[in-house]
């Protein structure tokens, strides 16, 4: 294919650890084949050139047929840059937990960012930052979101290929539990009582942690409509406290709106297993004293 007619690819970095960009570089042989089909026009992790011109700038020249964006928005300058990148990109795909859900740095969303800044930096007055870390989709329209911390290279190649040929990426939308079944894994929760976020976590890792006897940590973010009520109940049964539950959800995908109800669910008193629907043994006892045995109203479990 003539180099002048190849579609152009750009890769951008915002607040992140660069792990998802490195996933693309780690494609090795596949990357060589990809380079024959596309012109990698802007990718500062790989080269300081912009379509062969030196030096490249953070903003790029454009236009680009496909832009891959890693990282979250954490500064006013990030806001300006992502709007510019959206304008010069025909298709924009976010890659990784930072770009799709705010990343680990979104822990600032639940605390005082000024305190963090003063603790981390010797001269915090020179640090310009926003109070929150937000996903790219909170600022500009996004054509596709690829989950993971980091992303899976096979899924990345599928997404790039799909957009270059004009079709929808074939990325599964089921949970990690499906991947465990396909690998023939014994369920770590059923067999050993190990806390595991597999039932509410998006597939993509190949069930890496459960394969080695560990519970899923939720690296790939939430599945569609996760059943958090049941998940929180199961984690309690596996020995986790409410604080533990909130912390495990507020890691890689801290700002995921799908996970937001966990904070309230985890702080509620656990149900009495002998009387499902009652929030605790103490509450059931109170109802008996006030109304007589069996006359108290039963709460309904949320979906």
Structure overview:
The chain is α/β, with parallel strands linked by helices. It is 35% helix and 9% strand. It has 13 helices and 5 strands. It has helices at 19-25, 29-37, 76-87, 97-101, 113-120, 153-165, 176-183, 188-192, 208-211, 228-237, 242-249, 262-267, 281-291, and strands at residues 8-13, 39-43, 64-70, 89-95, 144-146. It has a 5-stranded parallel sheet, sandwiched between helices. Strand 3 (64-70), helix 3 (76-87) and strand 4 form a beta-alpha-beta unit. It is globular and about 65 Å long. Residues 278-303 have low confidence and may be disordered.
Shape: globular
Uncertain parts: 278-303
Please report the number of helical segments: 13
SS content category: alpha/beta
Helix content: 25-40%
Total count of strands: 5
Largest sheet: 5 strands, parallel
N-to-C order of helices and strands: EHHEEHEHHEHHHHHHHH
Task: Tell me, rounded to a whole number, the average pLDDT.
Answer: 85
Question: Which radius of gyration do the C-alpha atoms yield?
Answer: 23 Å
Strand arrangement within the widest β-sheet reads 2-1-3-4-5
What is the straight-line distance between the termini? 53 Å
* Beta strand %: 5-15%
């Amino acid at each position: 294919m003539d180099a002048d007619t190849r579609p152009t690819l750009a890769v951008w970095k915002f607040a992140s650890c660069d792990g998802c960009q490195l996933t693309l570089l780690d494609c090795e042989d596949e990357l060589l084949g990809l380079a024959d089909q596309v012109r990698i026009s802007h990718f500062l992790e790989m080269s300081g050139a912009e379509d062969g011109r030196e030096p490249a700038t953070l903003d790029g020249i454009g236009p680009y047929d496909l832009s891959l964006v890693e990282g979250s928005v954490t500064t006013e300058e990030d806001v300006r840059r992502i709007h510019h990148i959206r304008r010069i990109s025909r298709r924009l795909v976010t890659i990784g937990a930072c770009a799709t859900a705010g990343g680990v740095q979104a822990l600032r969303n639940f605390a005082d960012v000024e305190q963090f800044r003063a603790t981390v930096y010797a001269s915090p007055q020179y640090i310009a930052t926003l109070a929150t870390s937000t996903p790219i989709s909170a600022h500009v329209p996004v054509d596709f979101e690829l989950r993971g911390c980091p992303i899976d290279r096979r899924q990345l190649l599928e997404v790039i290929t799909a957009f270059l040929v004009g079709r929808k990426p074939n990325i599964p939308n089921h949970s990690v539990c499906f991947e465990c079944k396909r690998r023939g894994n014994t369920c770590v929760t059923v067999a050993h009582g190990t806390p595991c976020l597999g039932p509410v976590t998006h597939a993509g890792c190949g069930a890496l942690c459960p394969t080695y006897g560990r519970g899923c940590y939720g690296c790939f973010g939430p599945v569609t409509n996760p059943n958090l009520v049941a998940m929180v109940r199961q984690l309690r049964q596996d020995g986790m406290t409410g604080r533990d539950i909130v912390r495990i959800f507020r890691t890689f995908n801290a700002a995921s709106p799908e996970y937001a109800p966990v904070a309230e669910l985890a702080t509620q008193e656990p149900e009495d297993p002998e009387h499902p629907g009652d929030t605790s043994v103490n509450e059931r006892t109170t109802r008996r004293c006030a109304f007589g045995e069996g006359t108290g109203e039963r709460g309904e479990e949320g979906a």
